[in-house]
Amino acid sequence: MAAAAAVVEGEVRRDMWGQEYRTSSAECAAALDAYYAAFLSFGRGRVAAALRAAAADPTCALAAAHAAHAAAPRDPAGAAAFLGAAADNLGNATEYERAVFGTLSAMVGEERNEEVALERHLELLKKFPRDILSLKRAQLICFYLGKPELSLKFVEQVLPENQDQNYIYGMLAFPLLELGKMDEAERAARKGLAINKNDVWAQHNLCHVFQQECRFREATEFMESCSPSWVACTSFLLTHNWWHVAVCYLEAESPLQKVLDVYDQNIMKELEKSDCEAAEVYLNALGLLLRLYVRGHVHPAKERLTTFLDALKEESIWHVEWLLDLLILWALSSMDELKSAHNMLESLKSRVSSMDKDRQQVMQKAIQLAEAVYEFGNGEHKKVFDILGPNFDALGYKMIGASDEQVDVFNEVWYTVLISAGETSNAIDVLGKQIRKREGAPFLWRLLAKAYSLDGRGSDALVASEKANALQAAYSF
Predict the structure, then answer these.
(1) Entry's InterPro entries (predicted)?
(2) Arithmetic mean of pLDDT, 330-347
(3) Residue 129 phi/psi, 5° resolution?
(4) How many Cα atoms sit within 13 Å of 104 on the Cβ side?
(5) pTM for the whole structure
(6) Within 10 Å of residue 407's Cβ, how many Cβ atoms?
(7) Per-position b or e across 349-385, b if 16+ CB within 10 A of its CB
(8) Integer CA distances (angstroms), 20 to 34, 68, 411, in order
(9) 298 sits in which H/E element
């Protein structure tokens, strides 16, 4: 009887950071370690590892809770079953397991509430500051809610206990760069890479710094040198890192073929893999095609949209992420798939109307942007201006779950709309402010030259155009 009881209760083990949990299965423990490593490195096998852990020991509350979180995006019913199994085994669970269950039940349970999940993560990390897996989850919630200040608070709270961990520095770098603290972000990312040069999140964050500071050659050379370490990454991060490379080539006004080669060979080729997550690829593909479209490369953008347009009409990939929804909306409307585009827009409005009042209020800006994107795809620039008003700044729309670089394409849309809608003085003012932040971006100077020209300021237009040409020549690579 004693032996049987031991099996039911499970042996107390410690994970790789010292937190206690119960399982009598060595296979379960190994699978949990694999899940931790894959989650933090954006590894392809993280979902499989979590499910393997739960299968190896159905009585392990920690494994069941992680399996619930891993399964939730693709299998809500399965996630609910795992969460129920975790709840059933909390009686013998450790304090740490109960804390993890509390955070995850607020993320994937019937009473899902992101604000509650954040509060519970804050409490968990006070008690278990070495749990950088929970830190990563908390930061992801902050990202999708557009809260970089809180994300930084989370990581700074546990930094003293984790200075030996390379992952902590990538997690420190991201909110810093989102808050515009580029020097600090670069130092943090480099510190992580000094511990582990293959930390893909630290690589990604260092690229953000290079990109924001218009260090485009440095960005492409660095990222291409790192690219062999991305092979095991999720479809999202693999194609997202290549998206950064392509955008840096585009921003440096390199030959267009360089950008298209990255798109064709390094982003869309991911779709050929048997374990590909297609929606994650579409997110990065569409983000690049919209930038091409805004810069006047309409034919290559539409030519490439044609190859997966039918997939974008499939509602099964809608509402995975807000940013993806907005990009799909643009793609459908720009390709004259107006019925599908209208259905998407109405579906987004319905989605927001079902939220609680506080969240509804926040997400009204997302709906406003969705309406503008729909009209932009239709070529109705004056309507876009009327929807967004004279003081639009995409950085105020981070609730769609996008980084500064991802959301910046909507600012580029905005600049072109101002010019085409005849708001040239406003365009000159807005572009001047943006150029003071990113003086090395040729596209901004070209837009400024166009706005000056339309405003009758020919000499100023010539100066801006010459600046753009000089930058392009300097970047030539």
Answers:
(1) TPR-like_helical_dom_sf, TTC38
(2) 97
(3) -70, -15
(4) 28
(5) 0.94
(6) 22
(7) eebbeeeeeebeeebebbbebbbbbbbbbbebbebbb
(8) 17, 20, 48
(9) helix 298-306
